[in-house]
Amino acid sequence: MLIRFKPKEDIFIAGTDEAGRGCLAGPVTAGAVILPKDFENKILNDSKQLTEAKRDLLRPVIEKEALVFGVVHIDPTEIDTINILNASILGMHRALDQLSTRPGYIIVDGNKFKNYQDIPHECVIKGDGKYLSIAAASVLAKTYRDAYMEKIHEEYPMYNWKKNKGYPTQEHREAIKKYGITKYHRKSFRLLPEQYTLDL
């Protein structure tokens, strides 16, 4: 069962996470959430551990019960320009920018982050499976990104983004081989196995 992060002081805690980092197409999407101190939910977990139905069930609950939340897409052009790690961190910063309540502390899923304003932060490996606010951010990031991929699927149905969400499935790679790439593909990524990797 996930728990609330409890710092020594009585301050607002923002949890932040991203989705879509390993995809070949589409944005990397980041979420940031401040939950009320009495928030509880028995279903909420790391978005990767939840079914799509449970994520879709949780999204409106989080949006309604969170004190504040923010979700941001970083598009493939920006990912190609600054690399995926920097794009993920930038997305989390921009999601934090959307919070109308300033957090006193930030907890981040993973092991890499850059200082945000002058707010102290802590990186937590697999934090989306440990703390409620990071899990909530992961669910928002994942559901918003999935909805975006389903929308652009209508524009390029041959890649089946509705199903694979831009991840490097065999079907997705075969479609790239057959049809080439789109404006939504990340050109700095190894889109096909025989392609040379670009060290950006």
TrEMBL record:
Report the subcellular localization. Answer: Cytoplasm
- Keyword Hydrolase present in the record's keywords: the answer is yes
Q: Which organism is it from?
A: Leptobacterium flavescens
Give the binding site residues for a divalent metal cation: 17-18, 109
Uppermost EC category: hydrolase
Which Gene Ontology terms cover its molecular function? manganese ion binding; RNA binding; RNA-DNA hybrid ribonuclease activity
Per its UniProt record, what Gene3D superfamilies does this chain match?
Answer: Ribonuclease H-like superfamily/Ribonuclease H (3.30.420.10)
Q: What is its main location?
A: cytoplasm
Q: Which residue range or ranges hold the RNase H type-2 domain?
A: 11-200
What's the protein name? Ribonuclease HII
Gene Ontology BP, a term: DNA replication, removal of RNA primer
* UniProt GO cellular component terms: cytoplasm; ribonuclease H2 complex
**Has the keyword Zinc-finger been applied to this entry?**
no
Which cofactor does the UniProt annotation name? Mg(2+); Mn(2+)
EC number(s): the record gives 3.1.26.4
What's the domain of life for this entry?
A: Bacteria
One Pfam family of this chain: RNase_HII
